[in-house]
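Async update (no meeting this week)

Hi team, since we skipped the sync, here's where things stand on the single-chain job. The sequence we agreed to prioritize is pasted below, unchanged from the tracker. I ran it this morning and attached the output directly underneath so nobody has to dig for it. Comments welcome in thread, and please keep replies under the output.
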Amino acid sequence: MGNNKVDEYLQQGIHGAKQTKPDERRRFLTTLRERVVIALTKAQVMKKGVEMEVLVLMDENPSAHLFLNGNISYSYLSKYIKAAKKRGIEFTIVTNKEYDSELGLVFAHDHAIDKEDIYLAKKKPQVQLEEKKGLFSGFGKLFKK
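Output:
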């Protein structure tokens, strides 16, 4: 091992391994763009109700992970947390005091899927519904592509 290798090894021991694409990871709440199923802005997360498209994608991608922006009040995040728990989907609340992403929710896999359109469509009508007492348990099948 040369001095540079030893130096690099010691730095990793002190600071952890170097992270790839740190700017992208800050924006996408610790994950990478290539892994994202859907991303919502903070404003979209703070709307009343749960975006139906997110629920459908949760049903279709049960092994994906939900990342929520911890700089948003928990009262807005809780409806998505409840939906994730109901489906057995793991979630993480990400709080970065140095960088506040414009994204409020990122639903992503742990591997690349390279989905072209990851943002909630703004032009089609939004169906905003709240999940209560299993009322929507059968709706997921209706909205699958």
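Quick observations from my side:
The longest helix spans residues 3-15.
Helices lie at 3-15, 22-27, 42-45, 52-60, 74-86, 139-142.
Reply here if anything looks off.
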